[in-house]
């Protein structure tokens, strides 16, 4: 696994769940990169350090694809969550990241898992030769995100927004909600642009810069709907967490989010404030729509239960072990 930077914990949380729900016969050791994944030399040192780890199967869990350089290909699984690196860079830096993370690293794994069809399409546009080795294993949702008790729709509903990085699109969402009767709960650090949008909106709001998993589950129970009109996601786990809690969701018609929502969310154009405003208005006013989204959302979230996803990984571990045995 990567050495996590402050504020980056989604991959760690996902694979903590996977390990928890693997069948008991699996013995997992978590190996964390000794150096942060920044710059060429720290990454090459991480790759050399990984080569000294002994295992039956190696699983590189994301954001450190280059760890595959010195691992035995026949027993290595690589998970690719998204290709966001390439959306954040340009020029020579983008070329080098593409080489290190994709062209050289991805073909060095016997099996590559992606968390969505959107990520699969993007990955194969970069390294089409790995198509036969690519499988889809989605993100999973913790049992802690369970259906909340039913309650009357409040006069001033609370809209939950999770994450404040630029792709989370909070400024446009706040602009779309201005003038509507609601209050906001924003999870994540605020920047100057978001603070200005909040001030201009005159909406009541509260902020939680960071939350534990337990407190995050409570935030879903406390809210009335989730606003997650992101511009880019490899998957969009908050959609599933809100659905599992029994909350209606408004999300984007872009990237992986229609797929993750399973047709059980109200989709809007994340680049058009008017589209989002119309969606919010409809969701806030239409009780039958909300009830339908909640019902279908619970069905969709069940597909991402942690034991089910852990079993999918376990099957791949078994496959890699048997492949290696048959060729040795």
Descriptive notes:
The chain has helices at residues 10-21, 40-50, 84-87, 91-103, 117-126, 170-177, 192-201, 213-222, 237-245, 257-261, 273-285, 287-302, 306-327; strands spanning 58-60, 76-80, 111-114, 134-136, 158-162, 183-187, 205-208, 225-228, 249-252, 266-268. With 328 residues, it is α/β, with parallel strands linked by helices. The chain has a six-stranded parallel beta sheet with strand order 7-6-5-8-9-10, sandwiched between helices. Helix 5 (117-126) links the parallel strand 3 and strand 4. The longest helix is centred in the C-terminal third of the chain and has 22 residues, at 306-327. The chain is globular and about 60 Å long.
Identify the CATH homologous superfamily of the largest domain.
Glycogen Phosphorylase B
What's the CATH topology label of the largest domain?
Answer: Rossmann fold
Helix-residue proportion: 40-55%
Quick check: average pLDDT? 95
DSSP strand content: 5-15%
Distance between the amino and carboxyl termini:
27 Å
What's the quick description here?
It is built from 13 helices and ten strands. The protein is of the alpha/beta class. Helix 1 crosses helix 13, helix 6 packs parallel to helix 7 and helix 6 crosses helix 11.
Write the layout of secondary structure elements.
Blueprint: H1 10-21, H2 40-50, E1 58-60, E2 76-80, H3 84-87, H4 91-103, E3 111-114, H5 117-126, E4 134-136, E5 158-162, H6 170-177, E6 183-187, H7 192-201, E7 205-208, H8 213-222, E8 225-228, H9 237-245, E9 249-252, H10 257-261, E10 266-268, H11 273-285, H12 287-302, H13 306-327
Parallel strand pairs: 1-2, 2-3, 3-4, 5-6, 5-8, 6-7, 8-9, 9-10
Helix pairs in contact: 1-13, 6-7, 6-11, 9-12
